[in-house]
Amino acid sequence: MKVLVVGANGQIGKHLVSFIQESDSLDARAMIRKQEQASFFENLGAETAVVDLEDDIDAIAKAAEGVDAIVFTAGSGPHTGKDKTIMIDLDGAVKTIEAAKVAGVKRFVMVSSFDTTREAIQSAPESFAPYVAAKHYADEWLKRTDLDYTIVQPGALTNDEGKGQVQAAPRVDRGEVPREDVARVIVAALENEKTIGKQFQVVTGNTPIKEAVASV
């Protein structure tokens, strides 16, 4: 399975491309914003496609030509304004979903936020609410398509070394999770068709990742 990783140069994205390239059944194409970012992925043996998420749907669809799955791991980051949150986390996500349709790609994995309910938007701090709202509407847009989607909702992200063990379910208690383990969860979701149509939260736990993902 060839996988287009959108937001490949992000922290989860880099782990994800590395793990995909280590897999016997998956192969990555890294979608990056700048050509100078390509060497990291080329050294892993991955293909690259240089596309800005603020480009149009056709540009993203071209990057997705010939792939079997798309993973959206892009994010505007905590230090950008509301405008970038809208342009990347909402508009960029929706354009990628629409590009999947144009390119004929059915499998789509969305990396979302831990809680994207209406209640979470209302209760979020003012600076964080636009991000939660963007993720909420991107998730809802995806769920209303006929794509074979999986929505992964990680807890508070850390750069700790991955444990290889998580807790995954539609609802779990808030907690942290290493970005490395989130990337492994995505790989497990891609490899398990039973995750299609599922939306689940992930935090550090005591269950091996493949087993945890299979149980959702």
Architecture overview:
This is NAD(P)H-binding protein. This protein is α/β, with parallel strands linked by helices and 216 residues long. The chain has a single domain, classed as NAD(P)-binding Rossmann-like Domain (Rossmann fold, 3-Layer(aba) Sandwich). Strands 3-2-1-4-5-6-10-8-11 form a 9-stranded mixed beta sheet, with helices on both faces. The chain has a two-stranded parallel ribbon with strand order 7-9. Helix 3 packs across helix 4 and helix 4 runs parallel beside helix 6. The protein is globular, with a radius of gyration of 16 Å. The two termini are 22 Å apart. The model has no long low-confidence stretch (mean pLDDT 95).
Largest sheet: 9 strands, mixed
Strand content: 15-25%
Count up the helices: 8
Total number of strands: 11
Order of helices and strands: EHEHEHEHEHHEEEEHEEH
Please specify the SSE layout and strand pairing.
Blueprint: E1 2-6, H1 11-22, E2 27-32, H2 38-42, E3 47-50, H3 57-63, E4 69-72, H4 82-103, E5 107-111, H5 118-123, H6 129-143, E6 148-154, E7 156-158, E8 165-169, E9 176-178, H7 179-191, E10 198-204, E11 207-208, H8 209-214
Helix pairs in contact: 1-7, 3-4, 4-6
